[in-house]
Amino acid sequence: MMLSKKIMDEFEKYCRENKLSEKQKEEKMALLQKLISKYQYEPGEAIGIVAAQSISEPATQMSVAGSEKVILKHNDEIRIAEIGKFIDSIVSEGQHVDGWDVLDVSQQNISVPSINQNEKIEWKRLLAVSRHTAPENLMKLKTISGRSIIATDSHSFVIRDDNKIKAISGTLLKEGMRIPSIKLLPENCISEVMLSSIVGGRYINRKNLPVSMKLDEEFGFFIGAYLSEGNATDNYVNISNTDESFLSIIRNFADSLGLTHNEYDNYRGFRKGHDIRVNSALMSKFVSLSCGTGSKNKKVPQFAFSAEENFVKGLLRAYFEGDGSVSVERCMIRASSDSMELLDGISLLLNRFGIFASKISGRQYGLSIPHKYAKIFHEKIGFESTKKHERLQKLCLMNAKQDYIDAFGGFGMLLLDVSKKLNYPSRYVNSATKRQKIGREALLRHIEIFQALSQKTGIDIKKELETMRRMHNSDVVWDEIESIEYVSPSSKYVYDFTVEGTETFATFDGIITHNTMRSYTMASQSDRLSKVTHGLPRLIEIFDTRKSFEKNMIIYLRPEYNTKEKAREIANMIKESRISDIIISDSIDLAENLIELELENESDRDAVKAVIEKHIKGAEISMRGKKMAVKLSKENIKNVRKIKSKILRLHIRGIQGIENVVVIKDNEDWVIQTTGSNLKKVLQIEHVDISRMKTNDINQVYEVLGVEAARNMILQETLNTLGEQGLEVDVRHILSGT
Q1: Which of 34, 217, 294, 397 is 20 to 30 Å from the Cα of 89, by its Cα?
Q2: Could you say which of 334, 364, 397 is where a domain stops?
Q3: 312 & 378 share domain
Q4: Which of 552, 553, 558, 563 is nearest to 670 (CA)?
Q5: Nearest residue to 293 via CA among 301, 282, 304, 305
């Protein structure tokens, strides 16, 4: 295969830098040709906008439904959010390219649970969010454990294939195949929660509750008791239970906070019950807002997902004391609720301890925990009541039975090959190999047998055992697909994440899914330089000389400024700042016709005042410290909200059009990469090496440097874009069009 000159030049450079021998060069060249052959398109083959984002992936729209809830971590706190609401709230500030709305969020310290090639769950950085108009139908996929996800049928999912994690289009999924669901979620612990974060900054604290509640086991037990057995009124939290040890924990918790409590017998059910009322309007408001009210609306509070292990332990113990049961006959621990959201949250909290529960739908929603997790449940969570504790102990003593849900596929000939190596009877692994299905406990038994035989015979199966142990220690359950159907979208858009690493993220239901939006965002990772668009979309931008598209620049610095510190200083200097970027808060006083701003730094007062006076006619500005009041004229009363938005968008410093900056290392050079472009202004900066500066905006090149420079740029950009895809086109074809 003939490779393009650009690829060959880069290959030779790589070989020189890594001092490869001739034999090594031959091996690398064979691998390179194999990869290019795999990803190359034939002339005339449909590429399309999204195919150009990720060569060799499905050339259609790839996203999940807006109603899908996802797990996010922001500033070290876990949050659950509907992906549609989350992206809709921020994406208007982003890019708008050929039907896609995209926003780079790589600098916002957001991460998501992601699976790596070792089948471990780890938190990976969220690079970008995106949305596009929903197609006519979406695919709804349900698993045997009761989980589900709705996505476009060409959205990528994750499967096990030949003992590797691989992405596959939804169109290729079939019933019986397995996709990963979270079994173990890495801890991310916070030790306290601020009352004001739940009830707001202005609250009456008559009982002198602490400003921050410590997330310890007793508080967790109180929250779990409320979720299972409680209700909240304006003045107290009521919890119903007859177990004395259960009630004792609630009393101790109330006493520790100096809260009074009253107790009453009740006869609401079939037998006598008992209520304990913890008297505190503030505590009642706290649990109402964080946990919901009414059996159908209760939910695990957001702060619980980030809480320390003891808090989670207390919450789960109290919840299963109230709404849970232990069935020795059916070999399981169960829980039921009128709220699906509550049980989804409980299921995710169980993942903190590596416990995987199946979900059940019926007149009530339910969770079912197989008895193989009984020992973990006993050690990490436990029960207060004697009866449930004794039943749980019986479960712990039972022999492990086959768990038909927690099984592995995609292991190929691994078991059979090891058996042949060790002269172990193949009949013991033939069935599993043929069906490509083996349970976690069965796999462990094979590992123990193979290891013992290896030690006895001296036959080396170290690599094979490593693979098997990696499977057995997997942080996910490979959940079998039970059904696939098509449904109508429930909203205008569908949504997607761009995630670093293996490019996967998790829904609140626990299903791991693969993102497919890789190339439409600014390359703000520190390990690569990139244009914003590639392939066909970039060619369209070039030949249409579009004025509206995602612009960027790559700015090299003169040698005397080529340090990391100087590059950052210059980057901060050129980044555009608007008033919205330098304020803490903004508000409107309709009674006084005022727009109120609180600045981050008092030193910005004069600059902000001057800009507002220049652009808002008739505005009267008064200041007190960091606070600024903009009084509008009477004729502007009806437009006060529009004027506030206009004020927040006003440019205050930096270069207009340079919306974001990233400093990265390119070989020996510290380079500033930007979102947005302003060639004319950047050329005026003395620190810049103008001979190497680049912009992807042909119109700016034409306006600043002239028609010949624009013509040369069209030629070079076209050749580069085609070269990136491994395509060689005679330059005369391009010249004839320029």
Answers
A1: 294
A2: 397
A3: yes
A4: 563
A5: 301
Domain with 339 in it: what CATH number? 3.10.28.10
Range of the structural domain that residue 668 is part of: 535-575+657-735
Check whether residue 352 and residue 321 sit in a common domain.
Answer: yes
Long-range pairs for 625-629: beta carbons < 8 A, 24 or more residues apart: 626/584, 626/598, 626/599, 626/600, 626/601, 626/602, 627/596, 627/597, 627/598, 627/599, 628/596, 628/597, 628/598, 628/599, 629/594, 629/595, 629/596, 629/597
Provide the number of structural domains found in the chain. Answer: 6
Q: Which two tokens stand for residue 538?
A: 């970039």
> Where does the pLDDT of residue 519 fall: very low under 50, low under 70, confident under 90, or very high at 90 and above?
very low
CA distance 672 to 567: 7
- The packing angle between helices 309-323 and 340-350, to 10°, is 130
Phi-psi region of 357 (alpha: psi -120 to 50; beta: other; left: phi over 0): beta
Question: What CATH code is carried by the domain that includes residue 98?
Answer: 2.170.16.10
Which two three-digit tokens encode residue 183? Answer: 């079994």
φ/ψ of 358, rounded to 5, equals -85, 150
Name the amino acid, one letter, at 404.
Y
In angstroms, rounded to a whole number, what is the distance separating the alpha carbons of residues 384 and 346?
A: 18
- Lookup result for tokens 């509550």: 342
261-266 and 236-240 beta bridge pairing:
unpaired
543 with 683, same domain: the answer is yes
- Taking the C-alpha atoms of residue 166 and residue 411, their distance in angstroms, rounded to an integer, is 13
- Per residue in 597-639, pLDDT (tens digit) is 888 888 888 898 899 888 888 888 888 888 898 888 776 666 7
Q: What is the pTM of this model?
A: 0.66
| Per-residue pLDDT tens digits for 85-143 | 999 998 865 555 545 777 888 888 999 999 998 999 999 999 888 888 898 899 999 99
Determine the pLDDT at residue 406: 94
Bridge partners for 578 per DSSP: 651
86 phi/psi in degrees, rounded to 5: -60, -50
Residue 117 domain-assigned? yes
* Angstrom distances, CA of residue 559 to CA of 466, 569, 684, 687: 50, 15, 17, 9
Taking a C-beta distance cutoff of 8 angstroms, is the pair 359, 347 a contact?
yes
Any domain includes 402: no
**Same domain? 103 vs 81:** yes
Q: 400-405, long-range: CB within 8 Å, 24+ apart, which pairs?
A: 400/371, 400/372, 400/441, 401/331, 401/371, 401/372, 402/439, 402/441, 402/442, 403/370, 403/372, 403/439, 403/440, 403/441, 404/144, 404/439, 405/144, 405/145, 405/356, 405/358, 405/370, 405/477, 405/479, 405/480
Q: What is the per-residue pLDDT across 33-66, written as a single tens digit (0 to 9) for each?
A: 665 554 443 333 333 333 333 323 333 446 899 9
Residues 238 and 372 in one domain: yes
Query: Which CA distances in Å does 91 have to 87, 94, 164, 330, 546?
Result: 6, 5, 34, 49, 22
